[in-house]
């Protein structure tokens, strides 16, 4: 009898081991590379690289592909790109909502960030532009924000050109006497902001948070009229302008992703980041000069209990 029980126990263990191996063998479900999108700001690099490294731990073949914030949606909808960790829903263009409605792009849920976007300025500019932080003050003190190239108009530094034209559209729509000048890159924008701040020079800039710059500099936001519901950026008037529709930050995949890589789909649905986590990582990369991959590896080492749960649940 004991031999029979031992044999039965052995068979059961073998079955469990076999079952575990079978589950592991099913992942990756395809050897094709999951093409993970990199945009051109550091916070997105952090959230993307962490997700990509977790997929690698599950056995997936990962390829990082650089794409613009608006052009990326066509690639996702067509299946040429597969995962984007940070779609800011107030800067999506016309294609994105149509592709989501048709199912060509699937929203996995919020990443977990609590974002804000708008125009910022150093506090010392309130002496040169009385009435700030209210946006109406900008009409009366455009020259306080002017440069030799823009005078008598003020100068507003906006997002890089391939991020869209939202600031420029608002400036034109409410007839604000400012020249909207596209920043060359996130790094160039931050360098100019820090330089102007150190010199006490005027500067007005479109920016977002979470971002390490708010841990480095004291900055104020331009305030707009409150609005119930959505702020329609494309249809604003001088006296009632509401500024910028505030975003949620969504994780999205190509419409065929779940069928092709179901375990990866589930893990990415569970994956999250917080402002605090991302701010610390951005600060390390952009302000302390640390390597992005090193910072990502450090996050993984410090948060194994968190991400292992995501992987375990996805593999069930």
From TrEMBL:
Residues 1-24 form the signal peptide. The keyword Cell inner membrane does not apply. GO terms for molecular function: transmembrane transporter activity. Keywords: Signal. Transmembrane segments: none annotated. One of its GO terms (cellular component) is ATP-binding cassette (ABC) transporter complex. Residues 33-302 form the ABC-type glycine betaine transport system substrate-binding domain. This is Glycine betaine/carnitine transport binding protein GbuC.
């Amino acid at each position: 009898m004991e031999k029979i029980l031992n044999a039965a126990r052995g068979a059961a263990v073998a079955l469990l081991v076999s079952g575990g191996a079978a589950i592991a063998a099913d992942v990756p479900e395809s050897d094709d590379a999951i093409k993970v999108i990199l945009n051109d700001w550091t916070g997105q690099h952090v959230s993307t690289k962490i997700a990509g490294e977790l997929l690698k731990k599950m056995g997936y073949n990962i390829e990082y592909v650089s794409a613009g914030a608006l052009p990326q949606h066509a690639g996702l909808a067509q299946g040429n790109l597969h995962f984007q960790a940070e779609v800011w829903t107030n800067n999506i263009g016309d294609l994105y909502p149509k592709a989501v409605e048709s199912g060509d792009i699937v929203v996995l849920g919020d990443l977990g960030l609590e974002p804000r976007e708008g125009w910022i300025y150093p506090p010392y500019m309130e002496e040169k532009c009385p009435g700030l932080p209210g946006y109406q003050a900008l009409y009366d003190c455009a020259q306080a924000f002017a440069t030799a190239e823009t005078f008598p108009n003020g100068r507003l530094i906006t997002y890089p050109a391939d991020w869209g034209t939202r600031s420029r559209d608002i400036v034109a729509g409410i007839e604000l006497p400012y020249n909207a000048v596209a920043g060359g890159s996130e790094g160039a924008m931050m360098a100019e902001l820090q330089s102007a701040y150190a010199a006490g020079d005027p500067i007005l800039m479109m920016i977002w948070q979470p971002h390490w710059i708010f841990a480095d500099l004291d900055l104020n936001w331009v305030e707009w009229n409150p609005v119930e519901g959505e702020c329609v950026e494309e249809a604003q008037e001088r006296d009632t302008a509401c500024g910028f529709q505030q975003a949620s930050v969504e994780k999205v995949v190509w419409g065929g992703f779940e069928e092709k890589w179901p375990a990866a789909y589930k893990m990415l649905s569970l994956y999250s980041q917080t402002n605090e986590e991302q701010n610390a990582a951005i600060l390390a990369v952009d302000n302390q000069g640390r390597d992005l991959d090193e910072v990502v590896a450090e996050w993984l080492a410090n948060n194994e209990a968190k991400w292992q749960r995501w992987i375990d649940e996805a593999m069930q």
